[in-house]
Specification:
Number of domains: 6
Structural class: alpha+beta
Shape: elongated
Number of helices: 27
Oligomer: single chain
């Protein structure tokens, strides 16, 4: 019984393999668009093979059949999947039901178990179906057919043991091997399908790449000079493929004249076998008559005995856009190289990838030093705090443009201000990869702006100083006059006289302060003359020695011959005194004050002689920040109450007003040096004239005459009631009658009321309503009454501002009592 069973099962298995081979040939060309349709067709084919196998079974007993359908269904489940296997299972089950018999339950069980085992195996190994090896396929066969044998348990009891014992060996000997062989056939089928799919995909990708890359292919026969060209090759040049000349000669004729000799030489090298691979770039004429750039890549193949290629294959790619972009990039690079602004390109981490020459000039570094380094290392000056850089980097890493100014440091450690615009560059995913920085040196611009703002501030402060000085002069007029009146009323030995003298000295110092304010505001015009600086300093030395104290030594060094300078002598003395006092205050523990006067020449002065005066101390010195604000008005490094902050600002105004320059240099702990340079006025050692006493002072010390026999009436006009009150007391004590007016309108009314009885009018220049215009109104009305104008400003400034002529006498505030009375009597005497 063993041999017939083995022979019958072997024949059935061979029939299975034969039919599967036919199945493979049929389904190899079955590639419908729908996957479900394909699965249905496969399922029907597999079911048909299963039914065919069941036509030639081995009959163990009536109604009990054994065949290779379990092998088919197991392998179908493994390689065909669920849908085709289920269809085949249903078809074979239907056939088995039709056959009937005592083995029907076992037959149906065999169909179900074998198909299920194959499907389960499929889901576990679906990604490795093309890689299964024979041991695994043999194991599948054992599993499937053991399931069939286990189905014998469903046979009637009287056939169960006999069928199992008779069929175990034939089934396990033949059918697992058949399962392995069928599995190998299906594995190869899967491999072929995968290779076919990969080939089709590769072909599709290649076609898409050639189309997207505007590539054309050629296959040239060197013997005939004719080429087989792709459609893309021809349409790239704007021609119709139907009438295109594909010869090598025509190819050379389409070449740009500037490229032909070079390309023809390279082509001959390929034809001769001297070079087989080539990569060329040239221009070809299109059907429109213009030229496009072509990149040709290829090689010679199928070499003959002489080493020459029998075929030349390759591609033509339109690279016109790339060439245009390259030209544009070159022009942009030339423009960036020639740009006046510095341009830097860095990576995401701030490492410099490229920079133009302007950046190298600005920073002082070489290209080798800059590339690969970071601006944080090369340029950071420390002027910006970490928060500044955090804000900047936060903006940039968000992909936003950052604009701002910062102070950077050159290679030589000097600092400069740069205006910077940094633009992030992002990849297609929006990730920042590079930064482009455009830098402009605005150091000079910011310095000029600072100077302009400083000049505006100085102008505003000057106007303020002039206004304050005017008000101070009004107050000092009252204060100093009241002191004079008080002293005149006290006996010489009165105990209050020392206090009044001290108040008088303080008033005098206050007068000097207001003069400084007026000088600073340029409302105190200078009296320019030829001045010998050495003579000025020598004249001040005795005062300086008393002023600065015994613990400071004064050293002087003067050139033997010096040209005179044009400057107000009193203002020059004020400058020297200010610098000496500053030096004294900088040396509280003593030191040396050095004053040097020398000849010098400036590089930009066209050989003109200049005089240089240097005042140097050995005191505590100043830091850089203090030096930046040194000449600003009201800036002082002294303790409160020890400095007004106007001294150096006044010095600056005096020296620059004389056409000179003043600079300062200082090192903390080593002292300060001020250097003044003034242009020479020609001549040598020209001494200024000896100052004459002011006319007002001469009048003050001259004896007063007895006055007129009749009482003279004087009109006093001032909007300040204290000043009117003081002037009334002074004039009435001297025998004059006083009429008061608070403004110009009231003054004109008083003149009209007392016409002919007024001997003199004393009026302030600055009043509400009619101020300086009061005199003009008076003269316009035909009055020739003498007028004295009082003003908190200088005589020259007042005469110019009020527009009064020489017939009007001007007295500057603050004035002393004797000065006012002398002027009044002088004017009246001249009138009489």
């Amino acid at each position: 019984m063993l041999l017939p069973a083995v022979m019958a099962l072997s024949a059935n298995a061979l029939l299975l393999l034969a039919m599967v081979t036919i199945y493979d040939l049929v389904t190899a060309k079955l590639r419908p668009a729908s996957g479900l349709r394909r699965d249905a067709v496969l399922g029907l084919l597999l079911g048909g093979i299963g039914i065919a196998l069941m036509l030639l079974p081995y009959h163990e007993a009536p109604g009990i059949h054994f065949d290779a359908r379990a092998v088919l269904l197991g392998v179908a489940g493994l390689y065909a999947g669920v849908v085709p296997t289920v269809i085949a299972m249903l078809m074979t089950a239907a056939r088995r039901i039709a056959l009937g018999g005592e083995g029907l339950p076992m037959g149906l069980a065999s169909i179900v178990t074998s198909g299920a085992i194959g499907i389960v195996w499929h889901h576990r190994r679906r990604d490795q179906l093309a890689d299964l090896r024979w041991p695994e396929l043999l194991a599948l066969g054992v599993a499937v057919n053991v399931g069939t044998l286990l189905g014998t348990a469903l046979l009637p009891a009287d056939h169960r043991a006999a069928a199992r014992d008779a069929m175990m060996t034939p089934v396990l000997l033949v059918l697992p091997l058949a399962t392995m062989l069928l599995g190998l056939l299906m594995r190869d089928r899967v491999r072929r399908d995968r290779e076919f799919a990969d080939l089709a995909e590769t072909k599709t990708r290649l076609a898409l790449a050639i189309s997207a890359g505007r590539q054309g292919t050629f296959d040239l026969d060197p013997a005939t000079g004719l080429a087989v060209l792709s459609r893309e090759y021809v349409t790239m040049l704007g021609h119709d493929p139907a009438d295109f000349d594909a010869s090598a000669a025509a190819w050379l004729d389409r070449m740009h004249p500037d490229d032909r000799l070079r390309i023809e030489a390279d082509f001959q090298d390929v034809l001769a076998g001297r070079r087989l691979e080539f990569q060329l770039e040239f221009r070809q004429r299109t059907a429109r008559g213009d030229f496009i750039w072509i990149h040709s890549l290829g090689r010679g193949i199928d070499l003959g005995l002489d080493g020459r290629p029998r075929r030349i294959l390759g591609t033509h790619t339109d690279i016109t856009e790339r060439k245009t972009a390259e030209l544009s990039a070159r022009l942009e690079m030339v423009a960036l190289d020639a740009a006046a602004d510095a341009v830097v390109i860095t990576d995401r981490n701030g490492v410099i990838q490229w920079c133009n020459p302007a950046f190298l000039t600005l920073s002082g570094y070489t290209r080798e030093e800059a590339l690969g380094s970071s601006p944080r290392v090369l340029l950071r000056s420390g002027a910006q705090d970490p928060a500044f850089y955090e804000e900047m980097w936060g903006t940039l890493l968000r992909g936003e443009v950052w604009r701002g100014e910062l102070v950077n440091r050159r290679k030589d450690q000097s600092r400069y201000v740069e205006q910077q615009t940094i633009t992030p560059v992002s990849d297609p995913n929006g990730v920042v990869t590079h930064f482009i920085a455009i830098k402009r040196d605005v150091t000079a611009q910011r310095r000029f702006e600072a100077q302009f703002h400083q000049s505006q501030k100085m102008e505003s402060v000057g106007r303020l100083a002039g206004s304050v000085a005017h008000d101070f002069n009004n107050l000092l007029t009252v204060i100093n006059s009241s002191i004079d009146l008080a002293q005149a009323a006290l006996p010489p030995d009165h105990e209050a006289r020392p206090d009044l003298k001290e108040a008088e000295r303080a008033g005098a110092r206050a007068v000097l302060l207001t003069r400084q304010l007026l000088g600073f505001s340029r409302q105190q015009p200078a009296k320019v003359s030829r001045v010998d600086l050495a003579e000025v300093v020598r004249g001040l030395l005795p005062m300086l020695e008393r002023l600065i104290g015994e613990n400071i030594e004064i050293e002087t060094r003067f050139a033997e011959t010096l040209p005179p300078v044009l400057i107000d002598r009193g203002q020059m003395e004020q400058v020297v005194m200010n610098l000496a006092i500053n030096a004294r205050d900088a040396m509280p523990s003593g030191g040396t004050l050095t004053i040097v006067i020398a000849n010098t020449r400036l590089p930009s002065a066209d050989g003109e002689s200049w005089v240089e005066l240097t005042v140097r101390d050995t005191g505590m010195g100043m830091d850089a920040e203090a030096q930046e604000h040194l000449f600003e008005p009201f800036f002082t490094t002294k303790e409160p109450g020890k400095g007004t902050g106007l001294g150096l600002a006044t010095c600056l105004g005096i020296i620059t007003g004389a056409g000179g320059r003043i600079t300062a240099s200082s090192t903390p702990g080593r002292g300060t040096s001020f250097t003044i340079r003034l242009p020479g006025a020609g001549g040598r050692r020209c001494r200024g004239a000896t100052p004459r006493r002011p006319a007002a002072h001469a009048a003050r010390t001259a004896p007063l005459d007895g006055g007129s026999a009749t009482v003279q009436r004087i009109l006093v006009v001032d909007d300040e009631e204290p000043i009117r009150r003081v002037m009334r007391r002074v004039l009435e004590r001297s025998g004059f009658e006083v009429i008061e007016a608070v403004d110009g309108a009231e003054a004109l009314a008083a003149i009209a009321t007392h016409r002919g009885s007024l001997a003199l009018m004393i009026t302030d220049m600055m009043m509400p309503g009619l101020g300086g215009d009061l005199v003009a109104s008076l003269r316009a009305g035909g009055s020739t009454m003498p007028v004295i104008v009082t003003s908190g400003y200088s005589v020259e400034f007042t005469r110019e501002r009020a527009g009064v002529g020489a017939d009007v006498t001007i007295v500057s505030k603050p004035f002393m009592i004797d000065q006012l009375l002398a002027t009044v009597r002088s004017v009246l005497a001249a009138t009489n």
